[in-house]
């Protein structure tokens, strides 16, 4: 199945806490997404004082995403320990319609199938 929607979450920690948060975020946040999203990716950029984490999950539709995220898919489901780790609590996520991608989509590997431009 081709992903049509990307849901992007961003959060920042103190760099000193980044390794611990990365482990926690994977266990508490990424693993549940692996069970429901078509694919999920976790990115990390370390700075001198803060580290940014970006999670992108891929969905076949807004409806499928809403089954995971609830009636308002832009609403963030903060993890229990987020207040301990995050510098600021994110207020929302970004939802983007995928209009083109390259590669071959394999939900087990998390890569994208070529789709070319999409209408609508």
TrEMBL record:
Q: What is this protein called?
A: Antibiotic biosynthesis monooxygenase
Say which species the protein is native to: Bauldia litoralis
Family annotation (InterPro entries): Dimeric_a/b-barrel
